[in-house]
Amino acid sequence: MSPRDSALPSRRTALVLGAAVLAAPASAQRTGMLALRATYGERGPEIGNELIWRIYAVRSTDATLVQQSDQPRPSFVLPPGDYAVHVSHGFATAIRQLVVNEVGSASVIPVNAGALVVSGHIGGPERPMPPARQTLRVFIPTPNNSEGRLVTSDLRPGAILRLPEGTYHLVSTYTGTNSVIRSDVKIETGKVTEAVVNHKAATMTLKLVRAVGGVALAGAEWTIETPGGDIVGEAVGAFPSIDIAEGAYNVTARHNNREYKGVMKVEGGVNRDFEIMVE
Description:
Elements: H1 3-27, E1 32-40, E2 52-59, E3 62-69, E4 75-78, E5 81-89, E6 92-100, E7 105-111, E8 113-122, E9 134-142, E10 145-155, E11 161-164, E12 166-174, E13 180-187, E14 192-199, E15 201-209, E16 221-225, E17 231-236, E18 241-245, E19 247-255, E20 258-266, E21 272-277
Parallel strand pairs: 1-7, 8-14, 15-21
Antiparallel strand pairs: 1-4, 2-3, 2-5, 5-6, 8-11, 9-10, 9-12, 12-13, 15-18, 16-17, 16-19, 19-20
């Protein structure tokens, strides 16, 4: 083989490689980078956690989810085009339309969000309510209805609930009782609203006795009613206990086919015995 012939394969290889290099830019997809972060309102501090970002590609009247992230400062690599950026912080959300090009861009999106934390007491601040005994519901009021639209029914005492700025209606129930407290709370952007609910309720122990302070009779059946006749509790036994809201109640004890009645006055935070005398 001559020197000229031995050079041919190398030249052909170089031509093929050259063609591949020239073709590569034509087949590569153009992209740009979009860097995002969120703040509490226009001038508030940066939101550093509990964020969910969703990027939608906007084509005519359609929007398609293309990427998402739960990072506080995400960066998205996207083809140039029109996009809608949606960010959520708990129940608070914000959306902004952006254009991405090959140069790349950064954007700060304000979210008008605050937070609510609720705790409960029984009869006063010195008696915290066991968290398992407090049921909390949060509503958005509507015209002529303070409980217009339910936001959540499973808020736990002490937990942080992220909400859009505005006024909400809070309903706290001392679980297992007729003690229900309703109040309005205002949520401000970048602030944590701490709501303390004081339930005026007590634990009453029912006794049917033959003499004051005497031994309770076994087998008594109890009915507790409001002055309007609504039944708020029933029990069976010698000395059953019932948790009940502050107020006055009509109590009926049935024993050996006879009925005995009394009026029970409940003072919030004062647990005591309530006796009905057998005549």
